[in-house]
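Throughout this chapter, every protein is written as a compact record of paired, labelled lines. The reader may check this reading against the record printed directly beneath this paragraph:
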Amino acid sequence: MKKKLAAACLLLSVLAGAAGCGSSTQVDDLVTNEGYEEELGQVSAEDETLSERTETKAGTKVIAKEDLKIGVLYIGSKEDSSGYTYAHELGISTMAGNLGLEEDQILRKEELDDSKPAEITQALQECVDAGCNIIFGTSFGFMEAMEQFAEQYPDIYFAHGSGYLSNGKNFTNYFGRIYQARYLSGIAAGLKTQSGKIGYVAAQNQDNAEVTGGIDAFAMGVESVNPEAKVYVKVTNSWFDPEAEEAAAQALLAEGCDVLAQHCDTTKPQKAAQEKGVWGIGYNSDMSKESPQATLTSVLWNWSAYYTAYIQSILDGSYDGEDYYGGMEEGLLQLSDLADFNQEEAFAKIQEAEQKILKGELQVFEGVMETNDGRKIGIQGQTLADDVITGEIDWYYKNVVVLE
C-alpha cells in the first residue's frame, strides 16, 4: 500500500488537495518529477480489478462509498481559520469533495482535550455508536485509546495521525517527513535574522521526538546559511494552549529573538512577531493571512492527499494495513510561497536545498551530528531511519538553546 498510496498522494495533491493549503511553488515543481506519470499509470493498471474485491489486502472488509461513515477527532474546531485542526479539516473536506461524499457521512468530534482519556474514550464511543466504520484521530494524545478501540472493534478502521502505535490490520499510523520542510524554513530564518537569535515555540519538551526532530531539522537549516545563529526554544507543554503560546512568544522576543518559528497550534507566535516588528515562520497552514507583515513562509501539511488515498484504498480493496510516512516527494509537505521581504538569496538557496531533498541528495539527519550537550549522534555515511526520527530523537542539535 505504501508505494501505491505515495503515488496516489502525489497525484491528488497536485490535482486537488494542494489548492487547499494555499499557493506554493513546491507542489508545482513536483509535477515535473521524472518517472511519476509512468508510475501512476502502472498503479492504475494494477488496480483495475480492485473494485471487484469484497476483502482488502489486509483481510478487512471493503466498504461501498454509500456505506461510508467517517469519524474525525479534533483538538480544535472545524471552524478554525488557521493552525493544526484547520489543516486537517481542509484535508477532510477536500477528501469528501474528491470522493463525492455527503456531509452526513462525516462526524466530527471537536475541541477534545487529548490529555483526558475519559473525554477521548467518550468521543470514540460516540463515533462507534453513530455507525462510523472509519475513524481518524488527529492528535498525538488520542493514540492509546484508539489502539484499545481497534482491538475491541476489529471491523472498524482506525487511523492515527502522529504517534507510533499500529497493528498492521485495522489500526494504522500516518505522519510525514516534516523535518524536510522544517529544514527549508530554517534557511529562510537563518538568512533573515539580524540578532543571531531565532525563537521556536515548542508544544512539547525534548522527550517528544515529533517536536524535537522538527526543531533539530530547523536548526540544521539555520546553520547551513548562518553558522553563528542560535535557536532558542521555549516549551508550552501543551499541543493546544493559546495563552501559553503567547507567553512563550513574548519570552523569546524579550530574549532578543527577531524570528519566531513554532510547533504549536495557533497563530499567536506569528501575531506576536508582527506586533514586535520582527519576523516569523508559520506552521500547519499559511499564516501570512493573519500576519502578512511578519511571516516569511509557513510549513504546510497537505493532508487531503493522504485522506483521499486512504479512503480510496478501503473502497477499492488495495488497503493493506501498512503505516504511512510520506514527505515532500509525495506532496504531503511543502512551504508556502516566500514573502517578498525574505532575503534575496533565500529563494535560490531554498530551491537548491529542496531539489537535493527530492533527488535524495540531502537527507537532513545524515552522518555524525553534534548535540547541544556535546554528544555525537549518527554514523558517517548513514542516515537515521524513519522510525528513529519519528520516535526516538530526544536530543537537541548543537545550536539549540533551551529557554527556561
In short: Residues 209-225 form the longest helix (17 residues). The longest strand covers residues 295-301.
